[in-house]
Amino acid sequence: MRLSILLFACSMAGCVNVPATAVPPPPDSFLVAQKFFQPVYPAMDCEMVGRAQKDEIQDHFPAMFFFLDRNHDRVITRGELLDAQANASVDERRFLFAEMDENQDDRVTTEEYSAYASEAFDLLDVDGDGDLTEREVGMHSFRKVVQQ
Ligand SMILES: [Ca+2]
Ligand SMILES: [Ca+2]
Ligand SMILES: [Ca+2]
User: Fold this and answer.
1) Ligand that comes closest to the CA of residue 51
2) Interval between CA 72 and ligand 2 midpoint (Å)
3) What DSSP string runs through 82-120?
4) What is the pTM of this model?
């Protein structure tokens, strides 16, 4: 009874209104982590077995880091990330840069990149087996986007 009154009051106040136009949801850490890994996943999974281990981040670090560090000065700028991470929306790229730039000095160093890649790996390894599979990275949806 009390709940229905509350819900009624709530709907009168407009707080359960559905917006008329669909607004894209704000970037989400999980999805952005998937998009971070997707373009560099083939470099990590160089044996092409559909799974990558965490130490492959370090094994293939130059290939992964230089994907974003276009001018190879060992620092990723916001502009470099915006240019390179084309599989993500602009909002998602900005969100990714903020996630990576731990000390907020507008540059992502190799250390910050490593720390983010490691955290993102753990976030995406949903079954906790220490491997990142193609499925966990969402490679299927990535290939569809690339082929378009
Ligand atoms: Ca750079
Ligand atoms: Ca920084
Ligand atoms: Ca896994």
Assistant:
1) 3
2) 16
3) HHH-TTS-HHHHHHHHHHH-TT-SSEEEHHHHHHHHHHH
4) 0.82
Tens of pLDDT, residue by residue over 58-101, are 999 999 999 999 999 999 999 999 999 999 999 999 999 999 99
Ligand number nearest CA of 132 is 3
Residue 107 Cα to ligand 1 midpoint, Å, equals 9
CATH of the domain at 120: 1.10.238.10
Instruction: Output the CA torsion 92→94→99→104 (10° steps).
Output: -170
The count of structural domains within the chain is 1
Query: In the chain, pLDDT over 90 holds for what percent of residues?
Result: 77
134 C-alpha to center of ligand 1: Å? 28
Is the pLDDT at 129 greater than 90, yes or no? yes
